[in-house]
Design goal:
Blueprint: E1 9-14, H1 19-29, E2 34-40, H2 49-53, E3 62-63, H3 66-73, E4 77-80, H4 84-96, E5 100-103, H5 110-123, E6 127-129, H6 135-147, E7 153-160, H7 170-182, E8 202-204, E9 207-213, E10 219-227, E11 230-238, H8 245-254, E12 261-263
Parallel strand pairs: 1-2, 1-4, 2-3, 4-5, 5-6, 6-12, 7-9
Antiparallel strand pairs: 7-10, 8-9, 10-11
Helix pairs in contact: 4-5, 6-7
């Protein structure tokens, strides 16, 4: 943990005892310009987060009192890897305390994002929501957006571990929306007869999206474009959760220089 410098970024972590949360804690502790100041979780309350995440005590007890933790520890940012419902509550609590939420949870509805945007404007505190912190995934989405200018028809196959509760993934939804916005012509309608409901997946912004959930996977996505006599496949694979850490650290370092509600890591690159 870094101390003694005005440049040190004070970080609180919500969901600190989960797989991603522990990894975020471990990564923050290795950064010379960051200090972990609070650990929030509903599990292991009262236990030392250092013992949980690194086997070495840090003197920071896990708490489930979000507002109190933010008021006492006074972080600059709150990194949140929790559930959708908890994340929304944490975002509003952070904004009220002048703390910038950096959220890796996905699945926010348009109405929820609108409510968050209103709270951001009212409090004057920024908020960063990132469907996927892997820099390669961000590039995959950008490449898909570019390809959509030339290929009207596209489908997305996203594959995640069996512990992921939402489908489609936030990355797939974001990718479909980016494809739809970049299209220069309507996709060709494909005549089809579904023998079983859902065989063609869900439709997001007129893009079919197919979700796979299996043990052994981490986070993977393919975007397949089809044109006359050719196909183009853009694929990204996160084979280890460490792939998300450079993006998280980038967001932490840039958080205090952004304004308003930022959705997507591409705006910080």
């Amino acid at each position: 943990m870094s101390t003694g410098s005005e440049e040190v970024i004070r970080v609180a972590v919500a969901g600190a005892c989960g797989r991603m949360g522990r990894l975020v804690v471990q990564t923050i502790l290795r950064q010379p310009d960051m200090a972990l100041v609070s650990a929030i979780d509903k599990q292991h309350v009262g236990e030392d987060i250092g013992t949980i995440a690194t086997e070495h005590p840090l003197g920071i007890a896990v708490t489930d009192h979000v507002a109190e933790a933010l008021a006492v520890s006074q972080p600059h940012v709150l990194v949140d890897f929790t559930t959708l419902g908890a994340a929304v509550s944490h975002i509003h609590a952070a904004l009220e305390h002048g703390v910038i939420p950096i959220v890796g949870t996905s699945g926010f509805s348009a109405q929820t994002l609108s409510d968050i945007r209103e709270a951001v404007q009212r409090t004057g505190t920024a908020c960063i929501i990132v469907p996927n912190f892997a820099i390669g995934a961000v590039l995959m989405m950008q490449f898909a957006k570019e390809a959509a200018r030339y290929f009207a028809n596209a489908e997305i196959i996203e594959l995640h571990h069996d512990g992921k509760v939402d489908a489609p993934s936030g990355t797939a939804i974001r990718t479909a929306e980016m494809i739809a916005a970049a299209r220069t012509e309507r996709p060709r309608q494909i005549v089809q007869e579904q023998k079983f409901e859902g065989a063609r997946g869900a439709t997001v912004a007129h893009v079919p999206v197919h979700s796979v959930r299996l043990p052994g996977l981490v986070a993977h996505q393919m975007v397949i474009f089809g044109g006359q006599g050719e196909t183009l496949t853009i694929r990204h694979d996160s084979i280890d959760r460490n792939s998300f850490m450079p993006g998280v650290m980038l967001a932490v370092r840039k958080a205090r220089s952004v304004q308003g509600l930022v959705v997507g890591l591409e705006h910080l690159l």
